Amino acid sequence: VQLQASGGGLVQAGGSLRLTCVATSSGVLINTMGWYRQAPGNQRDLVATITRGGYMIYAEYVKGRFTISRDNAKNTVNLQMNSLKTEDTAVYYCNARNYRGDDFWGQGTLVTVSS
């Protein structure tokens, strides 16, 4: 599975960004897709995930501000990020997981929120 993420950039606090990740899978059926993030000096943390059936999980610190969506036919997952805060600054990584539990990662896209 190969993942290509896009949509990161520089935005002012209170602004919005939309991240998109496209998965290319050769015969691998993807169950969960989602986003994780890693700020400098920190571990990689979950932001939001969504299963093929549409079950979503959000980290507490993004609930009400971020929305994850998915197009199963296109193997695409999006993350709409609103009301961005400076503490949202991080490299955001796209993740895909198959039914066996194997994880696949994209290259990361940088989101910088300025005050």
Describe the structure in your own words.
It is globular, with a radius of gyration of 13 Å. 32% of the residues are buried. It has 115 residues and is mainly beta. The chain is built from no helices and eleven strands. Strands 2, 4, 5, 6, 9, 10 and 11 form a seven-stranded mixed beta sheet that branches. Strands 1-3-8-7 form a four-stranded antiparallel beta sheet, with no helix packed on it. The model has no long low-confidence stretch (mean pLDDT 96). Strand 9 (90-98) and strand 10 (103-105) form a beta hairpin.
Radius of gyration: 13 Å
Compute the number of strand runs. Answer: 11
Shape: globular
Measured as a percent range, the helix fraction is under 10%
Question: Oligomeric form of this entry?
Answer: single chain
Poorly predicted regions are none
Fold blueprint:
Blueprint: E1 2-6, E2 9-12, E3 17-24, E4 30-38, E5 45-51, E6 56-58, E7 66-71, E8 76-81, E9 90-98, E10 103-105, E11 109-114
Parallel strand pairs: 2-11
Antiparallel strand pairs: 1-3, 3-8, 4-5, 4-9, 5-6, 7-8, 9-10, 9-11
Give the tags:
single chain, 0% helix, mainly beta, 7-stranded mixed β-sheet, 57% strand
